[in-house]
Amino acid sequence: MKLPFLGACLVSLFAASAAVAAPPHEHGVARLDVAVEAGRITLMLEMPLDSLVGFERAPRDEAEREAAKVAVARLRDAARLFRADPAAQCKPAVAEIDGGPLTGGASHDGHADADASYTLECAAAERAAFVDTGLLESFPRLRIVNVQVATPKGQWKAMLSRPMTRLPLVR
């Protein structure tokens, strides 16, 4: 199967950045990879569990189980986390969540991340000038979101921090 050009660019962009050096696991900092291609906008989020719930292991008591439940529910609330420019005519995002030890997975070397991917199916994804994010509001322990963007018009990096919630998709 032949990958579309943008998909191939996105794969090479993310592989190249990972090959250079994996970013250190940093509490309060998330990574968001965004790809805009014909018919869809894909967003891949990686965030330390500490930024979600304040711990990086399986919940140990009822309070921690409740915090984990709330955090995973917030990760699943794609409509609150990502709202594309109305010009793109996107349907609400479909979310896939891997909450590590919060959802039954294992943690490694004392650090654990939550990974989530969101796909917005769009009638005109190429018209999206921005995506509004609710990440910083939904996760108060989160301070910074480092972003890599790949669109048919180019690739670049960006950073979101309070009060900034709009991620430009054009330069």
Q: Give the rounded overall mean pLDDT.
A: 85
Radius of gyration based on Cα positions: 16 Å
- The number of strands is 9
- Basic shape: elongated
Task: State the helix count.
Answer: 5
The total domain count is 1
Largest sheet: 6 strands, mixed
Measured distance between first and last alpha carbons: 31 Å
- Helicity level: 25-40%
pLDDT < 50 runs, ≥5 residues: 8-22
Structural class: alpha+beta
Signal peptide: 1-21
Organism: Rubrivivax gelatinosus (strain NBRC 100245 / IL144)
Keywords: Signal
Protein name: DUF2796 domain-containing protein
Brief descriptors of the model:
ZrgA-like; 9 strands; signal; alpha+beta; 5 helices; 26% helix; three-stranded antiparallel beta sheet; 171 residues; six-stranded mixed beta sheet; elongated
Strand and helix layout:
Blueprint: H1 5-20, E1 29-37, E2 40-48, H2 49-53, H3 62-76, H4 78-81, E3 82-84, E4 94-98, E5 113-121, E6 130-133, H5 135-138, E7 144-151, E8 154-161, E9 166-168
Parallel strand pairs: 1-7
Antiparallel strand pairs: 1-2, 2-5, 3-6, 4-5, 6-9, 7-8
Plain-language structure description:
With 171 residues, this protein is of the alpha+beta class. It has one domain. It has helices at 5-20, 49-53, 62-76, 78-81, 135-138; strands spanning 29-37, 40-48, 82-84, 94-98, 113-121, 130-133, 144-151, 154-161, 166-168. The strands form two sheets. The protein has a six-stranded mixed beta sheet with strand order 4-5-2-1-7-8, sandwiched between helices. A three-stranded antiparallel beta sheet has the order 3-6-9. Strand 1 (29-37) and strand 2 form a beta hairpin. The protein is elongated and about 45 Å long. 31% of the residues are buried. The model is unreliable at 8-22 (pLDDT under 50).
